[in-house]
Amino acid sequence: YQGKLKPAIAHNLVQIFSKAGMTVLDPFSGSGTIPYEAALLGRNALAFDISDMSVAISNAKIRNCSAKRCEEIIASLEEYIQTSKVTKKTLTDAEDVCFNKSISDYFEAETYQEVLKARDYFIQTKDLRDPDWCLVFGSLLHILHGNRPYALSRRRHPLTPYAPTGEFERKHLTTHLSTKVFKSLEEKRKTSIV
Fold first, then answer.
1. CA atoms of 79 and 75, how far apart (whole Å)
2. Which of 34, 40, 76, 166 has the fewest CB atoms nearer than 10 Å to its CB?
């Protein structure tokens, strides 16, 4: 996330300027670092942002989530991927976006089709008030980029202007997504933000 605040800075800011039980409001939540650290420190965390992506990520971090419901969303996504075609709008949008290569250069062909269908699915089912939807969506955003074993894309430099390199590798979207979601749920359980 561009402009992301380091967790250690957010942690110290919350600790210095508030006390346990107080409410911390972040009106520009971005990737939810301040509300997450506030929740970890026993504050009531409130956040909002103009970006749907930011709202989803923040909600995924600080709201209660259900493993069963997340599993249902992933199963619904998998069914959508298996039974649907990519919409013309998504195909057009994907062709219109280009960094230093086209988006299709970042993914193996079948994985790319799954990514495009997942985009359609999340547009059609969007519910920013549902923390489970937000966790699954936020987890998908997390696994879309490269340079990590869990990522769906080809390896590339961590800065966007550099082209992807390396071999194309088939990566099943919902398998990687499920792993990420349940790892996130386990981390939430450990931190007591459940």
1. 6
2. 166
